């Protein structure tokens, strides 16, 4: 493959070692979706799933906030989510998001997660080996990146165009933090995630880390041991969110699974605040994050905190 070290950022468990994908990318999970959207609340799933559906239509790995948003009529309608990921490499992983155990590519898992959180959104998939510039849709755009790029951005028109979209505020760009247990932007074995570094300070970009579960004030969560963290850079801290990755319920690990949850949240927020810009949607998610659901909260670990969809949706308008 022409892209050096391209790895999805979601499945841990030795994924970097076993991925035979393009050489310039790296990752940590699991990968994406396409096609124009689903609508409404997902239908009931097979009882054979180890992750049964709840009465409100949500699934075992989801925050209760998602069911509340759906009940209020906010499912991501009028918003487009584009998952850029691995959709062609024959490397599949086992998991169960509520449809029963399946074997899917990294991108397929990421896209399924985002589409299940925001079932009303228009879903698009884009293979990260397609090097042409990103195509933005006419409505509010959310772009999910659950992979790392270890080579100069100048060599990759697709990633350059995505960074440009984050710089200009043309799309909410959610980027998985990575699974090396280090601060974002830290070199490891001579390599650095150039895609992450290029998104630092971009006005509509969000970094997403993984918690060991969805936190509550009574059962606080902590950062998953594999998850990269915000670190000492105030700019990174200011654009860093966390969400629970309930791997014990789904079999899926890594920040690759955290990022599409926030992509779905962004779509849901955009479906309520229909005139909001991508930067306003991004800021609303960051500004309403919770810290009371986290063990020993500090911004160097958790950035702004745990994403709270209910708080993000609470006001009548945003600015």
Give the helix/strand layout.
Layout lengths: L6 E2 L6 H4 L6 E2 L37 H8 L7 E7 L6 E4 L6 E4 H12 L4 E6 L12 E6 L1 E3 L7 H12 L3 E5 L17 H6 L5 E7 L22 H5 L1 E5 L2 H4 L4 H18 L5 H10 L11 H4 L2 E2 L2 H5 L6
Parallel strand pairs: 3-6, 3-7, 7-9, 9-10, 10-11, 11-12
Antiparallel strand pairs: 1-8, 2-8, 4-5
Helix pairs in contact: 3-8, 8-9
Can you put this structure into words, describing what you see?
With 319 residues, this protein is of the alpha/beta class. The protein has one domain: Peptidase S8/S53 domain (Rossmann fold, 3-Layer(aba) Sandwich), CATH 3.40.50. The chain has eleven helices and twelve strands. The protein has helices at residues 15-18, 64-71, 106-117, 157-168, 194-199, 234-238, 247-250, 255-272, 278-287, 299-302, 309-313, and strands at residues 7-8, 25-26, 79-85, 92-95, 102-105, 122-127, 140-145, 147-149, 172-176, 205-211, 240-244, 305-306. The strands form three sheets. It has a seven-stranded parallel sheet, sandwiched between helices. Helix 6 links the parallel strand 10 (205-211) and strand 11. Helix 3 (106-117) runs parallel beside helix 8. It is globular and about 50 Å long. The termini are far apart. The model is unreliable at 1-47 (pLDDT under 50).
